[in-house]
């Protein structure tokens, strides 16, 4: 499966916002906890609207939560 | 595991088991009779009917066990479902074309019915597999 070039800081944002749980974030955004987990782990690229919703929950701009890398991310354990 | 992922597993297992049962039933038919004359209609109808009933019952059980969260599909579920069905539909088309060719070649109804049934089963298997892979390994529609 082609890895996404979109990375995110959802985990860090959750901890910065009162250690918000994945279930709480899921409830705010209106998705299942599994979907939040998939986004957090980079296994699902959310739509633009959902990305904005997640950023709005944390009260930060979109680019503080999601970043796009011009080069493909290197899988963990692989060294260039 | 997401509820929709469990439903994909149900679909996969039911499709495999019901088709295997159907094949066992047809292949163990009366000896000495050519396969194309073997009675298959009742076995086919029973396997399809039981597969539908078992799928509905298992889906209800999964939804009940999952509580409130199991009731709603979210955007990811809908996208993965749509993608899986889109990929799986290819086998329905292949089955229809195969049945058309068999009919034009004056094949026995046994082969036509079985080509269509096999295409439905393969469609179901492919669709479920694509959904499970999307849930497990990742889904990036963009």
UniProtKB/TrEMBL annotation, chain A:
It comes from the Bacteria. This is Helix-turn-helix protein. It comes from Streptomyces lavendulae subsp. lavendulae. SMART domains: HTH_XRE. GO terms for molecular function: DNA binding.
Automatic annotation (TrEMBL), chain B:
It comes from the Bacteria. This is Uncharacterized protein. It comes from Streptomyces lavendulae subsp. lavendulae.
């Amino acid at each position: 499966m082609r890895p996404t070039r979109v990375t995110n800081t959802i985990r860090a944002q959750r901890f910065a916002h009162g250690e918000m749980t994945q279930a709480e974030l899921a409830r705010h955004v209106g998705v299942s906890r599994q979907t939040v987990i998939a986004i957090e782990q980079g296994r699902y690229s959310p739509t633009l609207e959902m990305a904005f919703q997640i950023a709005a929950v944390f009260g930060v701009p979109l680019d503080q939560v999601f970043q796009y890398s011009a080069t493909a991310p290197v899988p963990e354990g692989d060294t260039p | 595991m997401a509820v929709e992922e469990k439903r994909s597993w149900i679909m996969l297992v039911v499709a495999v088991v019901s088709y295997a049962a159907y094949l066992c039933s047809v292949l163990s038919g009366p000896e000495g009779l050519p396969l194309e004359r073997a009675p298959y209609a009742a076995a086919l109808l029973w396997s399809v009917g039981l597969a539908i009933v078992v799928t509905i019952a298992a889906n209800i059980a999964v939804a009940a066990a999952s509580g409130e969260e199991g009731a709603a599909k979210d955007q990811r579920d809908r996208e993965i479902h749509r993608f899986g069905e889109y990929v799986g539909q290819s086998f329905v088309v292949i089955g229809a074309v195969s049945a058309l060719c068999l009919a034009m070649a004056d094949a026995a109804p046994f082969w036509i019915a079985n080509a269509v049934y096999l295409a439905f089963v393969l469609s179901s298997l492919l669709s479920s597999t694509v959904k499970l892979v999307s849930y497990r390994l990742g889904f990036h529609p963009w």
